[in-house]
Automatic annotation (TrEMBL):
One of its GO terms (molecular function) is serine-type carboxypeptidase activity. Residues 1-24 form the signal peptide. GO terms for biological process: proteolysis. Pfam families: Peptidase_S10. Keywords: Carboxypeptidase, Disulfide bond, Glycoprotein, Hydrolase, Protease, Secreted, Signal. SUPFAM superfamilies: alpha/beta-Hydrolases. The keyword Lyase does not apply. Its main location: secreted. This is Carboxypeptidase. One of its GO terms (cellular component) is extracellular region. It comes from the Eukaryota. InterPro entries: AB_hydrolase_fold, Peptidase_S10, Ser_caboxypep_ser_AS. Belongs to the peptidase S10 family.
């Protein structure tokens, strides 16, 4: 039961990468405090399991004793070159690769680490920021295994990714919230607990980023990510839009945001688990009827979270996760991120090469991180965000749609944990001026190189895309389709034609 009860907690993996600025000597602080009672060992159980995945170090890190180089609101960045991966004749400037730290002004001592890769195509391509979920998992996971400029091979070398999203955008990968990946602080109070704190930090970072790179301020801007970023993304989009309206600083040319296999509206998405599992043959009808008896208590628990907050939200996570537990107990060793596969190992995927690569002394020396170990996922951040899990982040999206902000929700059809069915249902149920027309629109094929790669529903600024032959991480499973999707969506071509013909982006 321990293993299954923790599976949902690991919903969000994604991207990560490297090259750091200042030398830092980390000092671990004591283990984070977890919610505990006789019936609720959810957080501690999750941490125990995830430590078994080798995603956490033995102790939480990324909290330092001191940082003499920290200046609030300051950004420090350098251009990067990779000795094992440089095109013949290319200079550092021509590659357009950057890495840096930003000292967060709404913190006592927090520094946010990021990578920035200029487009391999045109410098006037949109600026895209990618956010990984977790909460507390580094965006370098996506950078190496999904949509970054490079991929990591079995022998720990880097090769170009033919379908990196830097082929259609100037892309930023951020380690956030504070304590994630190479981001760190010297004060525990800087660890965030909700979307307000997370989105404020990201907004401040974007202000500093565009001040550092004024040549990109006129470019279109898009927010993207997957899994628990289904929380981060709508919150950041609302914060950017609010800042633009209030003329708080540099105008950020926000055009839209895309959520991949996200957790956005837990009430609707948890209710879809049994329907998806039955349809895909993971459970039988008798199992379906039995597990569905848990749905009313889950719904009530989420409603209580919405009105009372606090520990009530942690309890709702425990109550609702019983649904997922029951399904997985029946399904056995199926990979809950991709039900076509068996779950081999605790995490169902092997990302150990990245851990090994980033913790090599030569790489650490090149990054300038000193003794700061790379952490794929932070137990400290995870525990701090427990009360945020069951919040409904769909609530802020209608106002953005009404103001013309484009929204794309996409999902690989083979993912159980943040499945396409639950995502399609919250998109369908969302109340906005185009809800009726969106619901009436039929699904049309999404074509890539003439082959059907998914199905699309869209109306106005809202689009939902189910991607075939893909699990939780669409850019990893279907890289060409994912790049095609991104490019065509940003160009306004991921739409249904007036006569309902197939969608075949250019």
């Amino acid at each position: 039961m321990e293993s299954s009860s923790s599976r949902f907690l690991c919903t969000c993996l994604s991207s990560m990468f490297f090259f750091l600025i200042s030398n830092t000597i980390p000092l671990s602080f004591s283990s984070p405090t977890h919610h505990t009672n006789s019936d609720l060992s959810f957080s501690s159980t999750a941490e125990k399991l995830i430590r078994g995945f080798n995603l956490f170090p033995k102790d939480p890190i990324n909290t330092l004793e001191s940082d003499s180089l920290l200046v609030a609101g300051n950004i420090v960045e350098k251009k990067l070159t990779f000795p094992s991966l440089v095109a013949p004749g290319s200079s550092v400037e021509e590659l357009g690769h950057h890495a840096g730290y930003y000292s967060l002004p709404r913190s006592k001592a927090a520094r946010m680490f990021y990578f920035f890769f200029e487009s391999r195509n045109r410098k006037d391509d949109p600026v895209v920021i990618w956010l990984t979920g977790g909460p507390g998992c580094s965006s370098e996971l996506a950078l190496f295994y999904e949509n970054g400029p490079f991929q990591l091979t079995k022998n720990l070398s880097l090769v170009w990714n033919d379908y990196g999203w830097d082929k259609a955008s100037n892309i930023i990968f951020v380690d956030q919230p504070t304590g994630t990946g190479f981001s760190y602080t010297s004060d525990e109070s800087d660890i965030r607990h909700d979307e307000e704190g997370v989105s404020n930090d990201l907004y401040d970072f974007l202000q500093a980023f565009f001040k550092e790179h004024p040549q990109f301020t006129k470019n279109d801007f898009y927010i993207t990510g997957e899994s628990y970023a289904g929380h981060y993304i709508p919150a950041l989009a609302s914060r950017v839009h609010q800042g633009n309206k209030a003329k708080e600083g540099i105008h950020i040319n926000l055009k839209g945001f895309a959520i991949g296999n996200g957790l956005t509206n837990p009430e609707i998405q948890y209710q879809a688990y049994t329907d998806y599992a039955l349809d895909r043959g993971l459970i039988q009808k008798a199992d379906y009827n039995s597990i569905n008896k848990l749905l009313p208590s889950c719904k009530q628990a989420i409603e209580d979270c919405g009105t009372e907050g606090g520990e009530t939200c942690v309890t709702s996570l425990y109550v609702c996760n019983k649904i997922f537990n029951r399904i997985m107990n029946i399904a056995g060793d199926v990979n809950y991120y991709d039900i076509r596969k068996k779950c081999v190992g605790d995490l169902c995927y092997d990302f150990s090469e990245m851990e090994e690569f980033l913790n090599k002394k030569t790489v650490r020396d090149a990054l300038g991180v000193g003794d700061l170990d790379f952490v794929s996922c932070s137990s400290t951040v995870y525990s701090a965000m427990m009360e945020d899990w069951m919040r409904n982040l769909e609530a802020g999206i209608p106002a953005l749609l009404e103001d013309g902000i484009k929204v794309l929700v996409y999902a690989g059809e083979e993912d159980l944990i943040c499945n396409w069915l639950g995502n399609s249902r919250w998109v369908q149920a969302m109340e906005w001026s185009g809800q009726k027309e969106f619901g009436a629109s039929g699904a049309v094929p999404f074509l890539v190189d003439g082959a059907e790669a998914g199905t699309l529903k869209s109306h106005g600024p809202l689009a939902f895309l189910k991607v075939y032959e893909a699990g939780h991480m669409v850019p990893m499973d279907q890289p060409k389709a994912a790049l095609t999707m991104l490019r065509s969506w940003m160009q306004g071509k991921l739409t249904m034609t007036k006569n309902g013909d197939n969608v075949s982006p250019k």
